[in-house]
Amino acid sequence: MRALVLEDDLQVARGLTEGLVRAGYAVEHASTASEADQAMQRGNVDVAVVDLGLPLEDGLSFIRRMRDQGVTVPMLILTARDTLDDCVVGLDSGADDYLTKPFRFPELLARLRAAVRRKHPETSFLLSVGPLRVNLRTHEVYQGEEFFALRPREREVLESLMTAWPGCAAKAALFKDADGVPADSSPNAVEVSIFRLRQKLAPLGLTIRTVRGIGYRLEEQKT
Ligand code: CA
């Protein structure tokens, strides 16, 4: 899942980016609406977190303009403004949801997931990379039409890798609890699962590349 963070406060942006990467998102940061515009035009955004107070064009105007252009990417406003009027204007402008700072990160993650689900109720649970498909609702993995057998922890790791694909899944995000929040697990347990997954995925032309200091990325082998 690829997230765009539109936020001009670099410290806030860094915190958001780190948290989202830990949760398995591939994150692109934009400081201005025009940078965000370019990311949207490249078409590689699944969900956007939008600050309202921005230099030049503000977040409300950006959201309104995107909706006018037919962009349907789910957008969540994250802002210090907490008056009812701002909330109503934000939602009327085409935002999917609204969260005020300070916020709790698990709530942000839950709201982002909900916004994506509402927008794509049929497809947002289905991911595919190469010959593999995973249903995030039923936690079933298929190779083509065949069920692809994995141990539960291998499946969790694979789900995180496929959710982050083509980005990198943070090592800390590879095991998750029922709410999708990263669970504590020993680095060794992650490495054992990665080792086993690599063996199972190799015949499918998929590799798991180690991204030093960050985590792992699922890649299709070039033939
Ligand atoms: Ca701001």
Radius of gyration: 18 Å
- How are strands sequenced across the largest beta sheet? 2-1-3-4-5
Tell me, rounded to a whole number, the average pLDDT.
85
Which fold name is given in CATH as the topology of the largest domain? Answer: Rossmann fold
Number of helices: 7
Task: Give helix % range.
Answer: 25-40%
Description:
- By secondary structure, the protein is of the alpha/beta class.
- The protein has 2 domains: 2-119, Response regulator (Rossmann fold, 3-Layer(aba) Sandwich), CATH 3.40.50.2300; 126-220, Arc Repressor Mutant, subunit A (Orthogonal Bundle), CATH 1.10.10.10.
- It contains 7 helices and 12 strands.
- The chain has helices at 10-22, 33-42, 59-68, 84-92, 105-119, 152-164, 187-201; strands at residues 2-6, 26-30, 47-50, 75-79, 97-100, 126-129, 132-135, 140-143, 146-147, 169-170, 206-211, 215-220.
- A hairpin with a 3-residue loop joins β11 (206-211) and β12 (215-220).
- α6 crosses α7 (187-201).
- The longest helix has 15 residues, at 105-119.
- It starts with a strand and ends with a strand.
- The chain binds calcium ion.
Concise synopsis of the structure shown:
The model has no long low-confidence stretch (mean pLDDT 85). It contains seven helices and twelve strands. The protein is an alpha/beta fold.
Helix and strand arrangement:
Blueprint: E1 2-6, H1 10-22, E2 26-30, H2 33-42, E3 47-50, H3 59-68, E4 75-79, H4 84-92, E5 97-100, H5 105-119, E6 126-129, E7 132-135, E8 140-143, E9 146-147, H6 152-164, E10 169-170, H7 187-201, E11 206-211, E12 215-220
Parallel strand pairs: 1-2, 1-3, 3-4, 4-5
Antiparallel strand pairs: 6-7, 7-8, 8-9, 10-12, 11-12
Helix pairs in contact: 6-7
The structure holds calcium ion.
